[in-house]
Amino acid sequence: MKLETTLIHAGSEVDPATGAIAPPIHLSTTFEHGPAGEIPHGFSYIRVNNPTQARLEAALAAVEGGEAALVFASGLAAGAAYLQSLPPDSHVILHKDTYFGFREIASMFFGKWSCEYTIVDMKDPLSVRHALLPNTRVIWMETPSNPLLEVIDIAAMAQIAHNAGAQLIVDGTFATPVLQRPLALGADVVLHAATKYLGGHSDVQMGALVFGKHDKAVQEITHNRTILGAVASPFNSWLVLRGLRTLACRMDRHSANGLAVAQWLARQSQVERVHYPGLAQHPGHEIAQRQMSSFGGMLSFQVKGGQEQAIDVASRVKLFTNATSLGSVESLLELRASSEGPGSAVPDNLLRVSVGLEAIEDLIADLQQALG
Ligand SMILES: *Cc1c(COP(=O)(O)O)cnc(C)c1O
Predict the structure, then answer these.
(1) 79, 102 Cβ separation under 8 angstroms
(2) Of all protein residues, whose CA lies closest to atom 1 belonging to ligand 1?
(3) pLDDT at site 339
(4) For residue 348, which of 306, 317, 304 has the smallest C-alpha distance?
(5) What is the pLDDT of residues 113-161, one digit of tens each?
(6) Total domain count, the chain
(7) Residues with C-beta less than 6 Å from any ligand 1 atom
(8) Is there a single domain that holds both residue 139 and residue 235?
(9) Residue 343 in this model has a pLDDT that exceeds 80
(10) Are residues 30 and 142 located together in one domain of the fold?
């Protein structure tokens, strides 16, 4: 079955109790069990699992081509649950342009968890090989990366990880399963901040892990979620399930608009540099062409002059809203360094753009008047 069809039908079974086509939202926190604690319906308490979440997890596993999926309260909670399942003394290799929250987890918590990490530039596979240690358990990558849109070769990283007896996890938030299939390229786990494109309407926070194999690690991470409690709610599960239904259509339009905005920005004299993997001049374009079906709606660009000029542009946009987050129907823009705070390594004149689904003429007209 084609992905577009799976996205519509996965987890869409008609409700057996009522025949409802739209899935019910089960808000119950607790479920009847037998006198000796038997669980005849498969559900006992909401922190363990619930029917709406189970529907979404089955759908995500099908969509990503994995054997299991788990959803969490946020993208960071999903990543934290995975990292907390590693045995003590594990070593993790991260890309230097990894979502800043995960770099923060590494710097703040790995020591407490008796884990260690190395940050490398994964655009150069050799630097990953050099960073391998006997206790390297995980290569943690993100492609395209947030916020520099760097592209990392998933198949190459999978090979390096597996030769070293490590796992490869790919944060695929920017690409979604519509544009990129990490498990098919050899990754062991895919992470999504479902808060972004999977939800797609700036109204739900959630994270997801999809696993190629339903192995012991899945049981351990499930237990971690149950005990540490970073569960997704039924209503959020329902919203993300609904988001999946239109994901393929939205990503088509996001990609068309993203490419058009990137190409237009690249021609403007006020723009120093555009970061978008769909541009032929992007250093990762060739790899992106190989591992992505299209290039999505995320891009960033640097304004000539410096931070002051970038803030000027951000202050003049009307249709784009100055806000963090991404992946929704409406276009957003932000001075990225301001969101990441004092330790940010992002160029201070960089504006990150989430290109929405509006008419491309209106988006470009707004950017044109904002560039001045
Ligand atoms: C937003 C984001 C996350 C974190 O998701 P939250 O739901 O905000 O915790 C992780 N990775 C990437 C690439 C993101 O953009």
Answers:
(1) yes
(2) 193
(3) 86
(4) 306
(5) 999 999 999 999 999 999 999 999 999 999 999 999 999 999 999 999 9
(6) 2
(7) 74-76, 99, 101, 142, 146, 171, 173, 193, 195-196, 205, 207
(8) yes
(9) no
(10) yes
For the record, the structure tokens of 281 come out as 């001049």
329 vs 342: CA distance, rounded Å: 30
Residue 155 tokens, joined: 């198949």
Residue 341 predicted with pLDDT over 90: no
Ligand 1 atom, smallest distance to 196 CA = 1
Would you call 47 a catalytic residue per the annotation?
A: yes
151 and 190, same domain (yes or no): yes
Of ligand 1's listed atoms, the one at least distance from the Cα of 78 is 9
Q: Does residue 265 sit in the same domain as residue 292?
A: yes
| Co-location of 130 and 57 in the same domain | yes
pLDDT at 162: 98
Which of 187, 221, 245 delimits the end of a domain?
A: 245
Q: Give 332's strand partners.
A: 321, 354
Q: 3-state class of 71 per DSSP?
A: strand
- Say if residue 200 is in the same domain as residue 290: no
205 Cα nearest atom in ligand 1: 7
Give mean pLDDT, residues 22-27: 96
Mutate to test the pocket of ligand 1, among 146, 189, 299 (most ligand atoms within 8 A of CB): 146
Distance 268 CA to ligand 1 centre (A): 30
Q: Let me know if 196 is a catalytic residue.
A: yes
- For residue 206, the ligand 1 atom closest to its alpha carbon is 7
Encode pLDDT of 186-209 as tens digits. Answer: 999 999 999 999 999 999 999 999
- Residue 115 sits in a domain of what CATH number? 3.40.640.10
Q: What is the pLDDT of residues 137-150, one digit of tens each?
A: 999 999 999 999 99
- Using CA atoms, how far apart are residues 112 and 234, in angstroms rounded to an integer? 32
Structural domain boundaries enclosing 358: 248-371
| Co-location of 86 and 232 in the same domain | yes
Catalytic annotation present for 276: no
Return the CATH number at 301: 3.90.1150.10
Q: What's the alpha-carbon Rg for the chain, to the nearest Å?
A: 21
Statement to judge: residues 241 and 252 lie in one domain: no
Alpha carbon distances (Å) from 216 to 184, 200, 221, 364? 21, 32, 9, 50
Q: Whose CA is nearest to atom 2 of ligand 1?
A: 193
Domain ends where: 201, 217, 245? 245
- Between strands 271-275 and 298-303, the pairing is antiparallel
Mean pLDDT of all residues in 246-263: 98
Cα of 165 to ligand 1 centre, how many Å? 27
Q: 344 alpha carbon to ligand 1 midpoint, in Å? A: 16
In the structure, what pLDDT confidence band is assigned to residue 37 with cuts at 50, 70 and 90? very high
